[in-house]
C-alpha cells in the first residue's frame, strides 16, 4: 500500500463517520415526522368535526326561526286535512329528513316539501361562507335543514287523520351541517312544540281594575256575556268600588247593543263573523246596569262595596285575582307577601323584574304615537299614553282579525277618534302595588276624556280611573279569541328530551 | 530524490485528536438533543391527544344526556309525565351521572345509564343496568386515558343548563408536564 493510498484512506474514514452521524440524525427526524404530521391531521379532523357539528346547530336555529316567521302557513288548521302542497307523508322513507324519527312515528309523520330536492328548506342565506374571507374561520360550510310535522293526538301520538288532530302539532327540525369539500358532516335533530304567548282567559270582562272606578260620563260598557259562567254577564270587575253616582253610564249585553241599530252592524274579519257597530248603544229598557236609579248596578258589575248593590263585601280577599298580569298573560308579576289576597310585591327588581324580562323578550317595543291599524300582537309601551307622556291614543289601532295586546306602563287617555281592537293593559311598575287598590299616587289610571272612542276588547288596569265621556267599551268574544289564535301569538319551544345526534346523514 | 516519508509528530496527532474530539462531541450533542426533543414531542403529543379525545367523549356524552325517544309524551300532558332518563347528577365530586336513550325506545335499557368519573388518576366511563345502579366505582368501568397519562383533575360545575368541565392531565413518566382542558357544555335537553 502506497503512502498516498493510506492518506486517502484516512480522509475517507472521517467522511464515513460524519455520514453515519448525519444518517442517524436523519432517521431520528424522519421517525418523528409522521407522528407530528399525524397530530396535525388529528387536530384538523377534530376541528372539521366540531365545525360540522356547530354548523348543524346553526341550522337548527335557522329552522326554528323559519318556523316562527312562517307560522301562518306552516301551522295546520285544527281538524282540517294537512295541506298536501306543503307536506308529504313520510311513510317508510328513511332518507333525509324522515329517518330522524323512529319507524312507527315516521309512518304518521309528514315532511316539508321545499327546495330543489323537495325535502330541504331553501333558505335565502343558508350558507355560512360568502367567499369574501370575512366569514368565521373562512370555512366553506353549509347546512341543510328538513322539517317534519307531527299532528299530535290526545294520546300523544302522531296522526295523519285530520279528525284526530285537534290542533297540537310538533315539528322536528333535522339539520345536517357539512364542511364543503372535506367529506365532513354532522346531523342534529330537535323537536319543537308550539305554545301561545298571550292566552287571555275567555272570562275576562271588558273592564277590570285593581282600584276604584268612577262612572262620570255617559259611557257604555257591553258585557262579556259568559264571563261569570254560561249566560252570566260581567261588565266590570274591580277589587275596589265602582262609584256610578257621577254620570249617566249604562251597560248591556252584546246582542242588545247591536240590536239598537242593526243597520249599522257590519260583519268584518276574514270570515265575516265579527260584528262591529260604530253607532250602537245600550238603550233604555235593555240595560243590565245603569246610572238610572231604577236600574242601578246589576249583576254584571262586580265590585267591593255592598252599599250601592255591589256584589262583594268590602275587603273580601278572594273574589279578585291576586296577580292581574298573571290572570291575563299567564306570567307571574307579583307575589302576595301579606296574605291579603292581592299580589303587591314585584318579583325581581325593576328594570329586571320577572315581568319586564318576559315583556322584553316576547313583546314588540312600541310608542303611543306609532300605533296604527297595522299594529298587531303583544306590544310593550314604556310610557304613559296620555298628555305629558307619549300622547293620548287615537285613530284605529289593531284590527278585528289581528288585534293588539297593548301593555302600557302608565296612564291612558283616549282621543275621541280612537278605535281600538284588543286588550289595553295598564301596568304599574313600582315595587309595591298595595296603594293601587285604593288609588295611590303613580298607579296607572284610565283618565277622563275620550269623546266617542270605541274599544272592542278589554281594558285592564293595575290601578283605577274613570269611565266617562261617550266611550264605548265593547267585549266582542271573537276579537279576543283572534288575539290568542293569531299565528304570531304562537311561539316555538324545544321539547326537552328531544335533542339528539343519534341519526347521521 | 525520494522524499522522506513525513509521519505525524505526537504534537500534530494530539492537536488533530483534540479538534476531532470537539467536532465529534458537538455532533453527538446535536444528535442527542434531537433525539431528546423527539421523545419530548412524542410524549406531549400523546398527552394532548389523550386530553382532546377524552374531552370530546365527555362533551358529546353530556350533550346527549336526557334524550328520550318518547319525547312526544311530554306534549299535551301538562308535564305529568317525567323524563324517564332522570337528571344530570353532579352530587359526587369529580363524577357525573346521566343517561340517554341510545335506542330511542323511550325506556331506560341496560347500558343507557352512564357515569363519567375520575378515580386514582384515571378517568372512567361506566355503563350501568339501571339509573339506580349507576355509580362512580371502577368495577366494570372503561378507562378512557392511556397508561402513559395520568388524569390529575376532573371537575364538573353546573350553572343552569351549562356544565363546565375542567380536565387536567399529566405525563406518567414526568408529572411536571401537564395539560389542562376546559370546556363548557350546554345541556341540549334541559329541565322544564
Question: How would you sum up this structure, described in words?
Answer:
The complex is a heterodimer of chains A (505) and B (192). Chain A contains 7 helices and 28 strands. Chain A has helices spanning 3-69, 71-74, 103-106, 254-259, 324-329, 354-362, 477-485; strands at residues 87-89, 110-112, 141-152, 158-159, 169-179, 184-196, 207-209, 213-215, 220-222, 236-238, 242-243, 250-252, 265-268, 274-277, 287-290, 301-302, 334-335, 345-346, 364-366, 377-381, 396-397, 404-408, 419-426, 445-446, 454-461, 464-467, 472-474, 490-494. Chain A is elongated. Helix content of chain B is 29%, strand content 26%. The longest helix of chain B is centred in the N-terminal third of the chain and has 55 residues, at 10-64. Chain B has 1 helix and 7 strands, in the order H-E-E-E-E-E-E-E. Chain B has one helix spanning 10-64, and strands at 95-99, 113-119, 122-127, 142-143, 149-159, 162-171, 178-186. With 192 residues, chain B is an alpha+beta fold. The mean pLDDT of chain B is 88. Chains A and B meet through helix 1 and strand 6 of A and helix 1 of B.
Helix/strand-derived category of chain B reads alpha+beta
Shape of chain B: rod-shaped
Number of strands of chain A: 28
- Please state the overall shape of chain A, judged from the principal axes of the Cα atoms: elongated
Strand content of chain A: 15-25%
Mean pLDDT across the residues of chain A is: 86
Q: Please mark out the parts of chain B with pLDDT under 50 across 5 or more consecutive residues, or reply none.
A: none
Amino acid at each position: 500500500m502506497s503512502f498516498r493510498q493510506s492518506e486517502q484512506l484516512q480522509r475517507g474514514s472521517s467522511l464515513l463517520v460524519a455520514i453515519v452521524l448525519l444518517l442517524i440524525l436523519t432517521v431520528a427526524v424522519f421517525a418523528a415526522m409522521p407522528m407530528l404530521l399525524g397530530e396535525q391531521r388529528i387536530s384538523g379532523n377534530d376541528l372539521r368535526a366540531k365545525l360540522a357539528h356547530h354548523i348543524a346547530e346553526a341550522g337548527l336555529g335557522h329552522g326554528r326561526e323559519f318556523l316562527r316567521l312562517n307560522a301562518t302557513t306552516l301551522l295546520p288548521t285544527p281538524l282540517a286535512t294537512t295541506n298536501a302542497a306543503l307536506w308529504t307523508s313520510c311513510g317508510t322513507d328513511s332518507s333525509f329528513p324522515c329517518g330522524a324519527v323512529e319507524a312507527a312515528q315516521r309512518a304518521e309523520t309528514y315532511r316539508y316539501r321545499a327546495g330543489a330536492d323537495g325535502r330541504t328548506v331553501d333558505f335565502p342565506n343558508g350558507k355560512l361562507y360568502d367567499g369574501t374571507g370575512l366569514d368565521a374561520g373562512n370555512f366553506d360550510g353549509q347546512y341543510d335543514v328538513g322539517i317534519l310535522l307531527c299532528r299530535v293526538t290526545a294520546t300523544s301520538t302522531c296522526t295523519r287523520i285530520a279528525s284526530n288532530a285537534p290542533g297540537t302539532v310538533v315539528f322536528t327540525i333535522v339539520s345536517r351541517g357539512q364542511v364543503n369539500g372535506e367529506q365532513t358532516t354532522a346531523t342534529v335533530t330537535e323537536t319543537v312544540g308550539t305554545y301561545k304567548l298571550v292566552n287571555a282567559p275567555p272570562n275576562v270582562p271588558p273592564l277590570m281594575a285593581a282600584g276604584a272606578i268612577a262612572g262620570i260620563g255617559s259611557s257604555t260598557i257591553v258585557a262579556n256575556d259568559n264571563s261569570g259562567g254560561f249566560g252570566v254577564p260581567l261588565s266590570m270587575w274591580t277589587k275596589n268600588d265602582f262609584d256610578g253616582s257621577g254620570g249617566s253610564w249604562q251597560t248591556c249585553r252584546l246582542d242588545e247593543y247591536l240590536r239598537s241599530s242593526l243597520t249599522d252592524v257590519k260583519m268584518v274579519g276574514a270570515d265575516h263573523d265579527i260584528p262591529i257597530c260604530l253607532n250602537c248603544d245600550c238603550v233604555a229598557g235593555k240595560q243590565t246596569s245603569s246610572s238610572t236609579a231604577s236600574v242601578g248596578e246589576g249583576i254584571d258589575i262586580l265590585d267591593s262595596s255592598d252599599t250601592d248593590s255591589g256584589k262583594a263585601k268590602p275587603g273580601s280577599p278572594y273574589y279578585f285575582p291576586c296577580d292581574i298580569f298573571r290572570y291575563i298573560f299567564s306570567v307571574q308579576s307579583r307575589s302576595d307577601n301579606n296574605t291579603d289576597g292581592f299580589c303587591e310585591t314585584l318579583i325581581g327588581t325593576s328594570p329586571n323584574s320577572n315581568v319586564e324580562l318576559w315583556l322584553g323578550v316576547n313583546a314588540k317595543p312600541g310608542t303611543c304615537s306609532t300605533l296604527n291599524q297595522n299594529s298587531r300582537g303583544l306590544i310593550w309601551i314604556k310610557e304613559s299614553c296620555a298628555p305629558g307622556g307619549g300622547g293620548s291614543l287615537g285613530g284605529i289601532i289593531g284590527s278585528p282579525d289581528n288585534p293588539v295586546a297593548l301593555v302600557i306602563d302608565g296612564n291612558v287617555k283616549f282621543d275621541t277618534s280612537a278605535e281600538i281592537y284588543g286588550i289595553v293593559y295598564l301596568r304599574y311598575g313600582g315595587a309595591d302595588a298595595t296603594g293601587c287598590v285604593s288609588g295611590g299616587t303613580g298607579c296607572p289610571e284610565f283618565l277622563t276624556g275620550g269623546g266617542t272612542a270605541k274599544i272592542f276588547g278589554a281594558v285592564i288596569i293595575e290601578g283605577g280611573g274613570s269611565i266617562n265621556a261617550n266611550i264605548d267599551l265593547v267585549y266582542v268574544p271573537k276579537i279576543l279569541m283572534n288575539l290568542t289564535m293569531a299565528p304570531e301569538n304562537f311561539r316555538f319551544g324545544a321539547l326537552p328530551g328531544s335533542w339528539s345526534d343519534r341519526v347521521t346523514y | 530524490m525520494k522524499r522522506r516519508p513525513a509521519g505525524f509528530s505526537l504534537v500534530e496527532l494530539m492537536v488533530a485528536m483534540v479538534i476531532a474530539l470537539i467536532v465529534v462531541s458537538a455532533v453527538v450533542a446535536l444528535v442527542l438533543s434531537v433525539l431528546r426533543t423527539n421523545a419530548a414531542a412524542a410524549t406531549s403529543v400523546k398527552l394532548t391527544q389523550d386530553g382532546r379525545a377524552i374531552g370530546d367523549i365527555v362533551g358529546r356524552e353530556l350533550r346527549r344526556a336526557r334524550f328520550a325517544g318518547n319525547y312526544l309524551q311530554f306534549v299535551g300532558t301538562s308535564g305529568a309525565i317525567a323524563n324517564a332518563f332522570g337528571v344530570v347528577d353532579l352530587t359526587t365530586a369529580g363524577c357525573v351521572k346521566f343517561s340517554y336513550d341510545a335506542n330511542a325506545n323511550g325506556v331506560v335499557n341496560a347500558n343507557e345509564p352512564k357515569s363519567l368519573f375520575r378515580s386514582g388518576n384515571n378517568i372512567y366511563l361506566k355503563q350501568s343496568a339501571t339509573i339506580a345502579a349507576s355509580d362512580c366505582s371502577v368495577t366494570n368501568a372503561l378507562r378512557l386515558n392511556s397508561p402513559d397519562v395520568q388524569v390529575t383533575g376532573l371537575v364538573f360545575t353546573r350553572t343552569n343548563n351549562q356544565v363546565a368541565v375542567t380536565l387536567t392531565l399529566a405525563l406518567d413518566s414526568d408529572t411536571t408536564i401537564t395539560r389542562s382542558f376546559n370546556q363548557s357544555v350546554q345541556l341540549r335537553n334541559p329541565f322544564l
